[in-house]
Design a protein that fits this description.
Function (chain B): The beta subunit is responsible for the synthesis of L-tryptophan from indole and L-serine.
CATH architecture of chain A: Alpha-Beta Barrel
Number of domains of chain B: 2
Number of helices of chain A: 12
Oligomer: heterodimer
Pfam family, one (chain B): PALP
Number of helices of chain B: 16
Largest sheet of chain B: 6 strands, mixed
Keywords (chain B): Amino-acid biosynthesis, Aromatic amino acid biosynthesis, Lyase, Pyridoxal phosphate, Tryptophan biosynthesis
Number of strands of chain A: 9
Helix content of chain B: 40-55%
Number of strands of chain B: 16
Shape of chain A: globular
CATH architecture of the largest domain in chain B: 3-Layer(aba) Sandwich
CATH topology of the largest domain in chain B: Rossmann fold
Protein name (chain B): Tryptophan synthase beta chain
CATH superfamily of chain A: Aldolase class I
Radius of gyration of chain B: 21 Å
Mean pLDDT of chain B: 93
Subunit structure (chain B): Tetramer of two alpha and two beta chains.
CATH topology of chain A: TIM Barrel
Strand content of chain A: 5-15%
Mean pLDDT of chain A: 93
Strand order of the largest sheet of chain A: 5-4-3-2-1-9-8-7-6
Strand order of the largest sheet of chain B: 3-4-14-9-10-13
Number of domains of chain A: 1
Largest interface: A-B, 51 and 48 residues
Low-confidence stretches of chain B: 417-427
Low-confidence stretches of chain A: 1-6
């Protein structure tokens, strides 16, 4: 069931390496297609070169209910510029070639429409590590659990501060790769303070699973990354990175800002323990 | 948080709230505890005499239930001479069927100890009903409405604000009903501790499709016995408009076990199926997931949601309640559509022949009745759910028919409707 550490498509080897180095992993998100398909791929590769351990490749969707204004804006722009679901495979291959495992973050209807087994097969062929599914709970995921078992792809489900202990146990049992802990109740978006909720949900999740637990939603800078790295196995950053691109005057300036922030975050995850 | 001995036995994973293949719970994990709390609360409430008694009292003394039925013979002359009876949900307090569900969910909100309600609205009827119930029960209320809809339903925006609700215009996406639901879901995830989302139709994650249907079921329960009392028999067809599908499920459900009664839903045909500008899901779409449920969905080849169009804001929605999808695929209900033109003709016809101004949504059901009556002929008995009244639509109607002094009358829309000898209408 579990993919081989050295040859499997998943992220397990990344966490093994981070454990050896005594640090947390840095997981960096960008949607494919913003500012263009090629531009987003260059930005993802730049993040790998600047120290990201895992790239979370988002597929833009018309109705992103888990996302705040920053990510929703980039996704909307990408769709208007004609991005297609299949473009995600261009991005995963480039990220894999750059040396990091790409996990695809997608709302479920896009995979359903593509065909669950076909999507899994094409994702694996394009170097993909697995899927993060913000609006698919394991209860509804029989097709995906089957397809990911066949391909060895990781499946990352989310847990939230509102999850009961029973839900935490049930959801983490179906995860492979890591568990995505939502730091607080709300949509994605950079926040200045995360408070104690993130630490509490990580501790509660670790009480029911051996899998690595990564914290996402709201992380904006190196100091926060260091704070989370002290108790979590990985730090997930999204909106703050997207903002580097949406606020840049041109693509080169965006990439410069992105490299700088990823570098700061990479230092952060190394100073947390 | 620190439970002394937490029970870590994983709950069995099961697909809840399915109608055949349709339905389910496609939502962020963060909402699952709130959906489970709601499911438990409504199950308890539906067998609790105190809850049922309070709801019955409110419907009797506040909503104005039972709503009457009205036979409309002058309108029926244009429907092949069939006998046509309207179920008058338009006469409910706040002007539509929406109040049935809203009062029940507001009572549930109080039982769950929550103090704030949020809602989405398209035409504004569900928003007005929610603002009304919030005022009645002392709840804080925020209504999300697509920016396009706030413009075409400005009167309802003013009504909601007058009732004390905050109305948030949603500018993202197509700025219509689906985008209002996205924003309401985002609010709910962030504030689920003290907030209940009063979803206004029979879609969304379980338990909403089943629960909202049960709160509207009273429409069909009353109508069935009223029609039996008046005519001594069951109708040949029950006809209702279908956006999300709550008024249709409400009137259909009591008739599902009457095999000789045809159940006919009428979707928004917009500018015609071939134009692509419509909301006739069953005429053109495949199943997919939107807003927490698996159902027929207007989507492109990638699975991105398509923009829809209807002259009626309340039917302008790309998906449809999952139980309708099930009724359709099993053949128990049939679905057809009425274009904007046909719906507006039916709208004017009911105004002129019966002195009743219907909502544009309900006008689609009336257009369906004209069609079905002509197919079945004078022996047929049709029950039509008049789900709402058209006061809110006067601006749209005035523009459509050129009723404002000094404005040009759009071509072909100014003639009087008149019945011809064969029961057909020339419009």
């Amino acid at each position: 069931m579990t993919a081989d550490v050295t040859t499997g498509p998943g992220v397990e080897s990344v966490f093994a390496r981070c454990r050896e180095e005594g640090r947390a992993a840095l997981v960096c998100y960008l949607p494919v297609g913003f500012p263009s398909v090629e531009g987003s791929v260059r930005a993802m590769v730049a993040m790998v070169e600047a120290g990201a351990d895992i790239i979370e490749v988002g597929i833009p969707y018309t109705d992103p209910v888990m996302d705040g204004p920053t990510v929703a804006y980039a996704a909307d722009q990408a769709l208007k510029r004609g991005v297609h679901v299949r473009d995600v495979f261009t991005a995963t291959q480039a990220v894999r070639d750059a040396g990091a495992p790409p996990l695809v973050m997608t709302y479920w209807n896009l995979v359903l429409r593509y065909g669950v087994p076909t999507f899994a097969r094409d994702l694996k062929a394009a170097g993909g590590a697995g899927l993060i599914t913000p609006d698919l709970i394991p209860d509804e995921a029989a097709d995906w659990i089957g397809a990911s078992d066949e391909t060895g792809l990781d499946r990352v489900f989310l847990v939230a501060p509102s999850s009961t202990d029973q839900r935490l146990a049930a959801v983490t049992r179906q995860c492979r790769g890591f568990v995505y802990a939502v730091s607080h109740m709300g949509v994605t978006g950079a926040r200045e303070s995360l408070g104690d909720a993130a630490k509490v949900i990580v501790e509660r999740t670790k009480a029911v699973t051996e899998l690595p637990v990564c914290v996402g939603v709201g992380v904006s800078g190196g100091a926060q990354a260091a704070e989370i790295a002290a108790y979590a196995d990985g730090v997930i950053v999204g909106s703050a990175l997207v903002r580097c691109l949406t606020e840049a005057t041109d693509e080169e300036a965006g990439l410069t800002a992105l490299r700088s922030l990823v570098g700061e975050l990479a230092d952060g995850v190394r100073s947390g323990s | 948080m620190a439970e002394p001995t937490p029970d870590l036995t994983p709950e069995p994973l099961e697909r809840l709230g399915r109608f055949g293949d349709f339905g389910g719970r496609f939502v962020p994990e963060a909402l699952i505890p709130a959906l489970e709390e709601l499911d438990e609360a409504r199950h308890k409430a539906m067998v609790d005499p105190e809850f049922l008694g309070e709801l019955e009292r409110l419907h009797r003394t506040y909503t104005g239930r039972p709503s009457i039925i009205t036979e409309v013979p002058r309108f029926a002359e244009h429907a092949g001479g069939a006998r046509v009876i309207l179920k008058r949900e338009d006469l409910n307090h706040t002007g539509s069927h929406k109040i049935n569900n809203v009062l029940a969910q507001a009572l549930l909100t109080k039982r769950m100890g929550k103090t704030r309600v949020i809602a989405e609205t398209g035409a504004g009827q569900h928003g007005v009903a929610t603002a009304t119930a919030a005022a009645l029960m002392g709840l804080e209320c925020v209504v999300y409405m697509g920016k396009v809809d706030t413009e075409r339903q400005a009167l309802n925006v003013a009504r909601m604000r007058m009732l004390g609700a905050e109305v948030v215009a949603v500018p993202t996406g197509s700025a219509t009903l689906k985008d209002a639901i996205n924003e309401a879901l985002r609010d709910w995830v962030a504030n689920v501790g003290h907030t209940h989302y009063i979803l206004g139709t029979v879609t969304g994650p379980h338990p909403f499709p089943e629960m909202v249907r049960d709160f509207h079921r009273i429409i069909g329960v009353e109508a069935r016995s009223q029609v039996l009392d008046l005519t001594g028999r069951l109708p040949d067809a029950v006809i209702a408009c279908v956006g999300g599908g709550s008024n249709a499920m409400g009137i259909f459900h009591r008739f599902i076990d009457d095999p000789d009664v045809r159940l006919i839903g009428v979707e928004a045909g917009g500018e015609g199926i071939e134009s692509g500008r419509h909301a006739a899901r069953f005429a053109s779409a495949d199943p997919g997931v939107l807003h927490g449920t698996f159902s027929y969905l207007m989507q492109d080849d990638d699975g991105q949601t398509l923009e829809t169009h209807s002259v009626s804001a309340g039917l302008d929605y790309p998906s449809v309640g999952p139980e309708h999808s099930h009724l359709r695929d099993t053949g128990r209900a049939e679905y057809r559509y009425a274009t904007d033109d046909k719906a507006m003709e039916a709208f004017r016809l009911l105004c002129r022949t019966e002195g009743i101004i219907p909502a544009l949504e309900s006008s689609h059901a009336l257009a369906g009745a004209i069609e079905v009556g002509r197919e079945l002929g004078p022996d047929a008995l049709l029950l039509v759910n008049l789900s709402g009244r058209g006061d809110k639509d006067m601006h749209t109607a005035a523009e459509w028919f050129g009723l404002i002094d000094g404005e040009a009358v759009p071509e072909g829309r100014a003639e009087e409707p008149r019945a011809t000898g064969d029961g057909r209408t020339q419009l």
